[in-house]
Amino acid sequence: MRRWMTLNGLALVMFGAFLVFLVLQSVFGWQAQNADLADYGQPAQSYLAYLGSGDFVEATFENWESEFLQMGSYALLTAWLVQRGSAESKPLDADEEKLSRQGSDDPDAPGPVHRGGLLLRLYEHSLSIVLLGLFAGAFLLHLLGGTAAYNDQQALLGKPPVSVGEFLASSDFWFQSMQNWQSEFLSVGVLVVLSIVLREKNSSQSKPVAAPHRKTGP
């Protein structure tokens, strides 16, 4: 068990932090929602009811959507574009065909590499396919949760509800999305540029400390 935890420490810490912050988000969101309901003279909502509310679904998947868009786009863009000197870029002199042939001869290579054909073509882009698929799912849940949350607010104000299509066309929905999307691409862009001249010893996101600034790739 100790060895397993050591070999999977990065994932365990990341997903552990995710669960802790998700629970804290739900607790503080529940308290904030009940404070809003009290302002309208409405009864407080139970914690379990809040977890199934549009407000919680919207807040959660609005952020997931932007994260998966960022990572899916990044996986695609780094396959085609380079940034000289950045640890986040593939090497400038990478020979993709040579690397592909070497991989197919390795007995430990993933199954699709040996099988070839359509399965290999899909596997070659499986990372971006899955990440962008998760983005699409989070986008849909953000839209549905946002519609429900918006209609809850409309009900408190005595106004008629809107349809999913109407909320999709609203400035409210796209404001929520854009304020997250822009920050995600900003953070990645900053990392790409800073990794040219700055270092973090022993990090896979950094070049070796003694590497010259012009060195491109990890």
Give a verbal description of the structure.
- With 218 residues, the protein is an all-alpha fold.
- The protein has helices spanning 2-7, 9-39, 47-51, 54-80, 96-104, 111-115, 117-124, 126-156, 164-168, 171-197.
- α4 packs across α10 (171-197).
- The protein is elongated.
- The relative contact order is 0.13.
The helix/strand order is: HHHHHHHHHH
Overall geometry comes to elongated
Task: Provide the β-strand percentage band.
Answer: under 5%
Q: Classify the helix fraction into a percent range.
A: over 70%
Rg calc? 23 Å
User: What is the number of beta strands?
Assistant: 0
Uncertain ranges: none
Span from first to last CA?
31 Å
Discrete helix count: 10
Q: What integer is the average pLDDT?
A: 79
Q: Label the structural class.
A: mainly alpha
Largest sheet: none
Offer a quick outline of the entry.
With 218 residues, this protein is an all-alpha fold. The protein has helices at residues 2-7, 9-39, 47-51, 54-80, 96-104, 111-115, 117-124, 126-156, 164-168, 171-197.
Secondary structure layout plus pairing:
Elements: H1 2-7, H2 9-39, H3 47-51, H4 54-80, H5 96-104, H6 111-115, H7 117-124, H8 126-156, H9 164-168, H10 171-197
Task: Kindly list the characteristics that best describe this protein.
single chain; 218 residues; mainly alpha; 10 helices
